[in-house]
Amino acid sequence: AQSVTQLDSQVPVFEEAPVELRCNYSSSVSVYLFWYVQYPNQGLQLLLKYLSGSTLVKGINGFEAEFNKSQTSFHLRKPSVHISDTAEYFCAVSGEGAQKLVFGQGTRLTINP
Amino acid sequence: EAGVAQSPRYKIIEKRQSVAFWCNPISGHATLYWYQQILGQGPKLLIQFQNNGVVDDSQLPKDRFSAERLKGVDSTLKIQPAKLEDSAVYLCASSSTTTNEKLFFGSGTQLSVL
Predict the structure, then answer these.
(1) SS3 string of chain A?
(2) Which of A6, A44, A98 is closest, CB to CB, to B100?
(3) Predicted confidence (pLDDT) per residue in B14-72, tens digit
(4) Does residue B11 sit in helix, strand or coil?
(5) Of A49, A98, A103, the CB nearest to B43
(6) Cβ contacts (< 8 Å) between B42 and chain A: which residues?
(7) How far apart are CA B94 and CA B109, in angstroms?
(8) CA dist., res. B110 & res. A61, Å (int)
(9) Residue A104 above 70 pLDDT?
(10) Cβ pair A74, A89 in contact under 8 A
(11) Chain B contact for A32, CB < 8 A?
């Protein structure tokens, strides 16, 4: 079975500063990894995903994440954040194919002007 | 393209009452999911449908929760009777594939059980 741990429940940063949201996973099989974003009063939206191939994955809104198999991590990064990035971010993992998607607890990103 | 529609947006009930949530997925999406998101936690899968068949309901509390997807399109999730611990946001999602590569989520139904 897969599991996900998001190491920070809240991350406050200043506008235009870089940010990293940390995610570690546990799995005994090959995995697919995802980051979803939930803006206030909206549903979750896929930010980016790793299925195979290049370990550096680029997503929407300038975000990127790096799959590190040896450290079982999939940290999300953005070099310069904007007020509009204020949201809850969820890391998720599933086994290959149609296996269940398991979400982490979420990290609330707050951008201060 | 219309997104995943859910209703109602909010629901307040007393414990032991029953409640139902409705979801209409994106047109053509064969896979439909119901997730429960308790405050401060990530979404937890309750049930997954492929067309109108159940793929995974291992985490659905079947003594009180039921779900159906008639004709492989929209779906209803029911709780009867509700408990205090059922207070959560119930999210519906759909996908055009049989894998989890990309899910489209609705805005959810926020349930408060008093």
Answers:
(1) CCEEEECCCEEEEECCCCEEECEEEECCCCEEEEEEEECCCCCEEEEEEECCCCCEEECHHHCEEEEECCCCEEEEEECCCCHHHCEEEEEEEEECCCCCCEECCCEEEEEEC
(2) A98
(3) 999 999 999 999 999 999 999 999 998 899 999 999 988 999 999 999 999 999 998 88
(4) strand
(5) A103
(6) 4, 6, 90, 92, 103-106
(7) 15
(8) 28
(9) yes
(10) no
(11) yes
Place of tokens 């995995």: A31
A62 pLDDT above the threshold of 90? yes
Q: Yes or no: say if B95 and B31 are a contact pair by the CB < 8 Å rule.
A: yes
* Nearest chain B CA: its distance from A82 CA (Å): 23
Token digits of residue B17: 């009452």
Separation of alpha carbons A28 and A31, rounded Å: 9
What is the model's pLDDT at position A110? 96
- Report yes or no: A53 and A66 within 8 Å, Cβ to Cβ: no
The token pair that represents B54 in the structure block: 């159940």
The Cα A81–Cα A75 span in angstroms is 16
pLDDT tens for B70-111 read 888 999 999 999 999 999 999 999 998 877 778 999 999 999
Provide the CA A52 distance to its chain's centre, in angstroms.
16
Which tokens in the block code for residue B97? 């594939």
Structure tokens given for A99: 């296996």
Q: Which residues 47-76 of A are in CB contact (within 8 Å) with B?
A: 49, 51
Nearest CA in chain B to A92: B42
